[in-house]
Amino acid sequence: xxxxxxxxxxxxxxxxxxxxxxxxxxxxxxxxxxxxxxxxxxxxxxxxxxxxxxxxxxxxxxxxxxxxxxxxxxxxxxxxxxxxxxxxxxxxxxxxxxxxxxxxxxxxxxxxxxxxxxxxxxxxxxxxxxxxxxxxxxxxxxxxxxxxxxxxxxxxxxxxxxxxxxx
Length: 167
Description:
Elements: E1 84-87, H1 95-99, E2 104-112, E3 118-125, H2 131-140, E4 143-145, E5 147-149, E6 152-154, E7 156-164
Antiparallel strand pairs: 1-4, 2-3, 2-7, 5-6
């Protein structure tokens, strides 16, 4: 019998996520923006302190704008102590994933508030079959010791990875 060559009609490229948490950026520059603009604060447009337009009253483009621009956001404070988990609940397996004998990992990005409660929960990498929703529900019940900047609590981002494995 001659050798059989299989051709995959719909190949998939597996891409592993390389960055598991956001890098901390500290730019030690007095001003960042258009080098031809006004470099004291604001959007830096040539015509005013707000927006990126050449005209007055901010805006975008060459004419006077309706003040669409704005001041730059204040930089985040340097975190001196990262948040710590003080209460954790394991997520439940979904019935559909259990029936399919499916295992996977759900990666979530969360913000940990001043009160230690997670908020702004986002799915970075889902597993499907109801496991994503179970992971989000479980993390909502978690409690953290908030991050500190110096001696005061600050809001901090965190990445959470939850594995679903059958025994």
